[in-house]
Specification:
Helix content is 49%, strand content 8%. By secondary structure, the chain is α/β, with parallel strands linked by helices. It is globular, with a radius of gyration of 22 Å. It starts with a helix and ends with a strand. Keywords: Hydrolase, Nucleotide-binding. Residues 43-147 form the HD domain.
Length: 372
């Protein structure tokens, strides 16, 4: 089945399809700690969660898109447990550290291969990464900040509804995380006006400041006096970044890592320290001159991208991030037509590790899955 078929399938049809997939076999073979999951293995729990979804009081009020997001969040929320599960050698307890973080990448890869559209895929992937957070809200230093931050990554209403199904989809009588904790998530999000939509910051800069302050203040509205605007391009090789810039930002000077590698005669497989240092100095020259420009590189990893964005923000720049991801076969085709073609194996590895940008990182974000 492809994505167009799966997104309109019933829950039982999705389960039947999943049972033909190799990752389902790994889930069925993965044991869980009896204190949390006396129902048994990961796949057994997953099916119970899926079948809890239509039992939710709110299910009839959800749109087809919202139901799709919940179904595939349930399907994939523990998909990385077989990759992360370990048994304590002393206590014999089973744990799966960071399975949600790894699960985000696994879910993204499966959905990409199925042909899922970019926006739906990222909504599901972020739900998988954050699916356990409502249960631990009371342990957060500032619970209000938690629901506000998450509202710009996922829909808090859908996250709450999934958490209910996840809690009910297990056969453990002695749950130490009662549903009341989940209801607190809903109540707090409603009070903060971010249950059904992202928290309404006064300005884009107020949002950006909140996510980058050491001591975030929801009500702080910083003065806007940007020295310039930096457009950071983000996408796999062959995704069309050069074409987009030529069509949409042709007036801007461009700092391109590919161009700098050519100037310095550095191969992409060589040490990139000199290239990065040269690029930083070129960016600083433009920033000091208060000149808007575009920074063009793959920038597909959050940490790498963040170092550049921090540099630009330190100089008072307004940050615009443009992420391009046409269908994967189109990326491979376009890469083959490039003068500096990247080996397909390298692109596939980059895709597996890719972390598309979010609204937490910049003032303006554009996610584009159109063919250039």
């Amino acid at each position: 089945m492809n994505w167009n078929q799966l997104k309109t399938a019933t829950i039982e049809e999705v389960v039947a399809w999943a049972e033909t997939q190799p990752w389902r076999d790994a889930m069925a073979a993965c044991a869980q700690d009896a204190q949390w999951h006396s129902e048994g293995d990961v796949w057994t729990h997953t099916k119970l969660v899926l079948r809890q979804l239509p039992e939710l009081d709110e299910w009839p009020t959800l749109s087809p898109q919202e139901r799709t997001v919940l179904i595939f969040t349930a399907l994939f929320h523990d998909i990385a447990k077989p990759l992360t599960t370990e048994v304590d050698s002393i206590t014999g307890r089973i744990r799966s550290p960071k399975h949600a973080v790894k699960g985000e990448h696994v879910a993204r890869a499966i959905l990409r291969d199925l042909g899922c559209d970019l926006m739906t895929r990222e909504e599901i992937a972020r739900m998988v990464r954050n699916h356990g957070r409502p249960a631990f809200l009371l342990e957060r230093e500032d619970p209000t900040h938690e629901v506000v931050r998450l509202s710009w990554l996922v829909n808090n209403r859908l996250l709450y509804l999934f958490a209910l199904a996840d809690t009910r989809g297990r056969a453990t009588d002695s749950m130490t995380r009662p549903e009341e904790n989940l209801h607190y998530w809903k109540l707090l999000a409603e009070e903060a006006n971010c249950y059904r939509q992202p928290y309404p910051f006064a300005t884009d800069h107020a949002r950006f400041a909140f996510f980058h302050q050491e001591e975030p203040n929801l009500h702080y509205v910083p003065h806007e006096d940007f020295r310039c605007t930096v457009t950071l391009m983000c996408g796999l090789p062959g995704s069309g970044k050069d074409t987009w810039l030529s069509q949409q930002r042709s007036n801007l000077p461009i700092v391109s890592l590919d161009d700098i590698r050519g100037e310095l005669d550095v191969d992409p497989t060589d040490n990139q320290g000199e290239v990065a240092q040269f690029a930083r100095e070129r960016c600083r020259e433009l920033l000091r001159a208060k000149t808007s420009f575009a920074f063009n590189a793959t920038n597909t990893m959050r940490q790498t991208r963040g170092r550049w964005l921090d540099l630009f923000a330190d100089y008072g720049a307004q940050l615009e991030v443009i992420y391009l991801e046409p269908p994967f076969p189109e990326i491979l085709r376009q890469n083959k037509e490039r003068a500096g073609r990247v080996p397909e194996g390298v692109i596939r590895k980059l895709a597996d590790r890719c972390e598309p940008p979010t609204w937490l990182e910049c003032h303006r974000l554009e996610m584009n899955d159109a063919v250039s």
